[in-house]
Amino acid sequence: MEFSNSLKAEEYLDRLRTFMEHKVLPSEPIYHEQREALKISGQPHVLPAVIEELKEYARAKGLWNLFLPDAHEPAHGLTVTDYAALAEITGWSPEMAPEALNCSAPDTGNMEVLHLFGNEAQKRQWLEPLLRGDIRSGFAMTEPDVASSDASNISTSINRIGDEFVINGRKWWTTGAMDPRCHVLIVMGLTDPNAESYRRQSMVLVPMDTPGLSIVRNLTVFGYEDQHGHAEILFENVKVPVANLIGEQGSGFEIAQARLGPGRVHHCMRAIGMAERALSLMVSRSAERTAFGKGLNQQGVIQEWIANARIDIEQARLLVLKTAWLIDTVGAKAARKEIAAIKVVVPRMAERIIDHAIQTHGAAGVSQDTPLAAMFAGIRTLRIVDGPDEVHLRDIARIELKSQPSSRK
Ligand SMILES: Cc1cc2nc3c(=O)[nH]c(=O)nc-3n(C[C@H](O)[C@H](O)[C@H](O)COP(=O)(O)OP(=O)(O)OC[C@H]3O[C@@H](n4cnc5c(N)ncnc54)[C@H](O)[C@@H]3O)c2cc1C
User: Fold this and answer.
1) Cα(387) to centroid(ligand 1), Å
2) CATH of the domain at 288
3) pLDDT of res. 70
4) What global pTM score does this model have?
5) How many of the other CB atoms lie within 10 Å of CB of 370?
6) For a substitution probing ligand 1, which of 384, 393, 394, 396 has the most ligand atoms within 8 Å of its CB?
7) Is 363 helix (H, G, I), strand (E, B) or coil?
């Protein structure tokens, strides 16, 4: 196994650390002020201006679209392992840094899909403006009426009539769709209800302004109204040309799988960045406060939290880097077990550390005065997003059971 940082990754890391230290982290209070002002003016999903400034800066420094190795000429050629280290750094400011680098979900996954499976016309119309950071996009798979962790339940219908697909159904948790810059959705639905179960679904591109598409409401996360939003969307006889099909009819499930491999490494590395920031805040707060005659950092229980946090972060990071290295060397399919494992290990680990950091801060930890409360809400959702823990555990158990000779008797 070889997953130390390459020279190229080190060079990008230096640039990214400087950008985070001098630009992103000092801009956090400005971001929150601008968001507050936008909310008061009735525009909670408009992007604060400070992010556009950071985007300009990041682009000028070459810190742009780093998740996609060969999107630009000349290609930057970063591997999944190289990018993993960079994604971790962006996790220190999860609301701002990924977007500033044009590396935020769900656009990264959508861009990967268009890059891998889109035709030339689709790339020109949607991938190019996404890569420029001019528009955003959404991925609409989950539905309120069915258990969507089982993708074969997805029931939105996509019927071919002549040269068009006609879409009917209700989606929710379409991240990004509340942002006025969101111009297109990748919608997953049933095109072939009688095919074998993994060939029933397809993905089609649906422009946001297509007649029949309406946003029902925004969904909050523990009461937080995220800037890009999570939309419930109704599709009533929404018509798009058949040319909007991505890949082949019936390939939706296969594309969904391809979309999630590197994406899970990105999510997990950002979560490790969040855990590192929480640990750093736990250390600094415990050094500042005295209770019952000694510094909080002299209390055994807090020392134990700090020590366990360091151990847990190191273990989790090694597993994610091993997974990234496997994706680079043998591909996402062969790394299925590890991809499922990191999706369970990392959010649990980060949730525990952020929880301890909150506890160390006392009441301040649950307030808006530190990033911890928002980080806690965000990390809790990661145990559900892109498949709940239980589904990944089931997949790992199945692979393990198959691989053990004793279980084949
Ligand atoms: C913040 C956030 C952002 C999201 N963004 C998007 C997005 O952009 N696009 C999109 O399409 N979706 C998105 N989602 C939805 C997310 O991917 C789904 O919620 C997830 O796949 C689970 O589906 P479900 O909510 O229908 O839960 P269900 O499928 O109803 O499952 C509920 C629970 O049942 C249990 N369960 C399910 N299967 C098993 C099993 N095999 N064994 C044991 N227990 C099991 C699990 O505990 C699970 O949590 C987002 C969700 C959140 C919270």
Assistant:
1) 5
2) 1.20.140.10
3) 77
4) 0.95
5) 18
6) 384
7) helix
Q: Which of 12-21, 254-263, 285-294, 348-357 has the lowest mean pLDDT?
A: 254-263
Total domains in the fold of the chain: 3
The domain boundary residue, chosen from 246, 281, 305: 246
| Nearest CA-CA partner of 228 in 98, 121, 334, 357 | 98
pLDDT digits (tens, 9 = 90+) for 344-363: 999 999 999 999 999 999 99
Would you say the CB of residue 22 lies under 6 angstroms from ligand 1? no
The alpha carbon of 372 and the centre of ligand 1 are apart by a number of angstroms equal to 24
Asked, for residue 130, whether it belongs to a domain, the answer is: no
Residue 2 resides in a domain? no
Boundaries of domain holding 398: 253-408
What is the rounded CA–CA span in Å between residue 101 and residue 17?
A: 13
Name the residue with tokens 């339940």: 153
Q: What is the pLDDT of residue 72?
A: 65
Residue 325 in domain: yes
Mean pLDDT is lowest, of 1-10, 154-163, 205-214, 335-344, for 1-10
Identity of the amino acid at 130: L
For tokens 């806690």, the residue is 376
If asked whether residues 178 and 101 sit together in one domain, one would say: no
Give me the pLDDT at residue 258, please: 79
User: How many angstroms separate the CA atoms of 344 and 37, rounded?
Assistant: 37
Strands 201-207 and 182-190: antiparallel
Q: What is the pLDDT of residues 76-113, one digit of tens each?
A: 789 999 999 999 999 999 999 999 999 999 999 999 99
CA-based torsion, 112, 264, 324, 283: positive or negative: positive
Query: Residue 123: inside a domain, yes or no?
Result: no
Whole-angstrom distance, CA of residue 171 vs CA of residue 153: 13
